[in-house]
Amino acid sequence: MEKILNDALMPMVNEGLLSLERINSLIYLRDFIDRVSTKEYAERRAVRELEKRYSVMPDIITWGDYFQTETASSLCYVSDDAFNHAVSAIRFDIMSCNEIFPGKGKEFLDWIDEQYYIAIDEETTDREESVQLKIMKDYYVQLGITDNFTLAERAWYSSYEEAAAM
User: Fold this and answer.
1) Of 20, 26, 21, nearest to 8 (Cα)?
2) pTM of the entire structure?
3) What's the CA gap between 161 and 50, in Å, rounded?
4) Sign of CA dihedral 90, 94, 95, 97
5) For residue 145, what is the DSSP state?
6) Among 30, 53, 96, 129, which is most buried by a count of CB atoms within 10 Å?
7) Angle, CA 101 vertex, CA 123 and CA 125 arms, to 5°
8) Which residues sit opposite 37 in a β-bridge?
9) pLDDT of 47 strictly over 80
10) Which of the 8 DSSP states describes residue 76?
11) pLDDT surpassing 60 at residue 166
12) Ramachandran class of 3: left when φ > 0, alpha when ψ lies in -120 to 50, beta otherwise
């Protein structure tokens, strides 16, 4: 049986820190990330070695596990509105990666890194944009984002993008 909520979150559930709405959002987020990621968070060989050595699997194996646990723990004490906004922002950023980066060469990815370091060092006016682009580039490269989005996600993305433009 596949676990839909990471074991690392069980203490938060038991303490009543995660509402049913948040749990549903976290389940969706994990599924979403795992569906569009082509790269492993933890190498299978390393996971097998840990299981063999300690007779237990690590809690965080996939990128979906990572995003689910990190989101839950880092946003534990924010309002439900802030939590939902953060989950939507992650979803939007991941989908935007697929719009921005496919087909771009190493030169473009290196340019993003350069702009990020310039913006950080010199505190430029486009600092926030450079940081956001760097985060998205890192998502794209590290997770290996692929276009495996559902029709409902595409419709959501289009409406979210249109609303942001207004």
Assistant:
1) 26
2) 0.89
3) 42
4) positive
5) B
6) 30
7) 15
8) 145
9) no
10) T
11) no
12) beta
